[in-house]
Write a structure and sequence with these properties.
By secondary structure, the protein is of the alpha+beta class. It has helices spanning about 1-10, 50-65, 70-90, 165-170, 240, 250-265, 280-290, 355-370, 380-400, 430-445, 450-465, 465-475, and strands at about 30, 35-40, 95, 100, 130, 135, 155, 160, 190-195, 200, 230, 235, 245, 275-280, 300-305, 310-315, 320, 325, 330-335, 345-350, 350. Strand 5 and strand 6 (about 135) form a beta hairpin.
Length: about 475
Amino acid sequence: MMGWLNKIFKGSSSHRISEGQYHGKYGEDRVWNGHSGSLDDNSDFENEDIDRAIALSLSEEEQKQSNVPDNGSHLEEDEQLARALQESLNTESPPRENGHLYHLPFPYSTGFRICAGCNTEIGHGRFLSCMGAVWHPECFRCHACNLPISDYEFSMSGNHPYHKSCYKENYHPKCDVCKHFIPTNASGLIEYRAHPFWLQKYCPSHELDGTPRCCSCERMEPRDSRYITLDDGRKLCLECLDSAIMDTTECQPLYLDIQDFYEGLNMKVEQQVPLLLVERQALNEAMEGERNGHHHLPETRGLCLSEEQTVSSILRRPRIGAGNRIVEMITEPYKLTRRCEVTAILILYGLPRLLTGSILAHEMMHAWLRLNGFRTLSQEVEEGICQVLAHMWLDSEIMSGSGSNVASSSSSSSSSSSSTSSKKGTRSQFEKKLGDFFKHQIESDTSSAYGDGFRAGNQAVLRYGLRRTLDHIKLTGSFPC
């Protein structure tokens, strides 16, 4: 009997445990990894030696009982020993949860156990002890695939167990660019980057491997899609392309909408100021020739000119050629003559309607200020109040959900940007989200002129109204406190 017991105890084993932690901060580098636990399965729930040893010991005692009538007390002791042995093999290697050992409070003398899975009695059969409960082996199931967990290790989310593979598939973050699981860093933690507005998460390596961003929404190009390449090297995602304005003629309905917006604020621009859509190079050249302009570096997307110049404007929208590249750009020179304080407004081509409109509303405010005698303003005050008007226009567009069909004048049948998303009353959900993003950009700008200037101007307008704020600016050159 003791020889069998020695063999059985040597056959028992315990299993290793792994655990982890996760940390994260919004708007910065993210670090994440999951928790995993371990499952004591008593060597895959099978030990034929144990069963044979118990059966043999009981058989020997039955034979002794038939030969020796007064050995009942010995038989009872051996039966208790066998039961204690079965209990010890099921409980001697307790699992870990979050790194702490815990033991099941079952006395060796009872066989009454309730399975946490099916709520029926387990009896003297095989069972698992984990998660503070006991289970039939077939009742301890993965919360994702609903198949029994027979591995030595399992993962937890909330109060639910998972196969490690199922947990990884459901909870391990995937990169929105390459679509692979985001790898762990040198410390064994999952580290990724995230856009503060879109929450697009991606591997840190994509910031160094040349992955392009959309020049409008700033999202990185996923590997399974192709952004449009504009002639100046800018990239434009297909969703932003859907409402993009590509030439001067196409922009005229939007220009009329913003003129109506200013007239509704009792700020009508009396002079007819030419509006031209231009390439980046033409915008930069015009910016160098403008002595008194304020520019938002590093990327200038609009300009209010007061100097006489000849500007190369886009006459007809380009088409999309091989490799998703813009081709056949048609331009013409436009000679600007000085008829008033403002000679023209220039806007970078290829931007979505709402972004083009917000830039145009900003530059229109520069024109209004010059035409109404607001001179020698500080950059913070002038750029700040212009950003307030751009923000107000975006607000009005998002609230109304309306918009002119700015693409209707295009005769190009090959372009996908002649979309119904820009038609009145049919703006897409993405375009509404895009409007919120452009507002977010204005609100979170960190520059002193555009960011601090906007926040000071917006606070003044909210407190005193636009008209009183403008009167105070004209009188003092500063925002009212």
